[in-house]
Design goal:
DUF1510 family protein, single chain, transmembrane, alpha+beta
């Protein structure tokens, strides 16, 4: 056997060994790649299931959130209704208080009290305004029937006792010598009550009632008959 023949066989063996080794490496790589692909498939499948479960969990939570939101809205609506009811109640209370105040003021403006005077049944006091005058200053008392001053006196007396002027009999008017004071004695034609009303002249404004009294007897008629 020649040296060339031995070398040739050795080369072929070495080459075949290398090819076998390469094939084995490729087989190992193929197995690893296959295992990797299988692992990726299972991993993706697990992720999809987890995402699906998460999605279902989120969907399950949505109605609860809506229920909580609806509950909050109902609570807000109830609070709003309560606030509206409270406001309405407060407004009603305020209106009632205002009406009571007005009634109280009206009663104060026309207050009736008992008097120590034996001739007086009761006293009427109020915050009366002067009866508007058409007279010029300086003012002089004039008791003559039909005079402007007499008409304004009678109107002021009627307003003080809240009876129409044409429903009253004016029995007697006197000043007692005081230039800005007048006392009038009148009778209610329909009710049969007798009154004594005190007036004061307010400069540039007119006759203002100061006090009114309900009398037991017709003192005005008595004064008329005695004079």
């Amino acid at each position: 056997m020649s040296y060339d023949s031995v070398g040739s066989r050795s080369n072929r063996y070495e080459k075949r060994r290398k090819n076998t080794k390469l094939i084995n490496i490729l087989i190992v790589l193929a197995i690893l790649l296959f295992a990797f692909l299988i692992g990726m498939i299972f991993f993706d499948s697990d992720d999809s299931e987890e995402q699906t479960q998460d999605g279902q969990t989120n969907e399950d939570n949505i109605p609860d959130q809506y229920e909580e939101s609806d509950s909050e809205e109902d609570t807000e609506n109830e609070n709003t209704e309560d606030d509206t009811t409270d406001e309405s109640t407060n407004q009603t209370d305020e209106n009632n208080n205002e009406e009571n105040d007005e009634e109280q003021n009206n009663n104060e403006n026309d207050e009736q009290t008992q008097s120590n005077d034996e001739d007086v049944k009761e006293t009427i006091s109020g915050d009366w305004a002067p009866y508007p005058t058409e007279q010029d200053e300086p003012h002089t008392i004039n008791f003559n029937d039909g005079s402007q001053d007499r008409q304004e006196m009678e109107s002021a007396i009627a307003e003080a006792i809240n009876i129409p002027r044409d429903q009253l009999i004016y029995w007697w008017l006197e000043s007692g010598g005081v230039p800005d004071r007048v006392t009038g004695y009148v009778e209610d034609r329909s009710g049969g009550e007798y009154y004594r009303v005190y007036l004061q002249w307010i400069e540039n404004e007119g006759w203002q009632p100061q006090k009114a009294e309900v009398l037991h007897e017709n003192l005005g008629k008595q004064k008329l008959e005695s004079n």
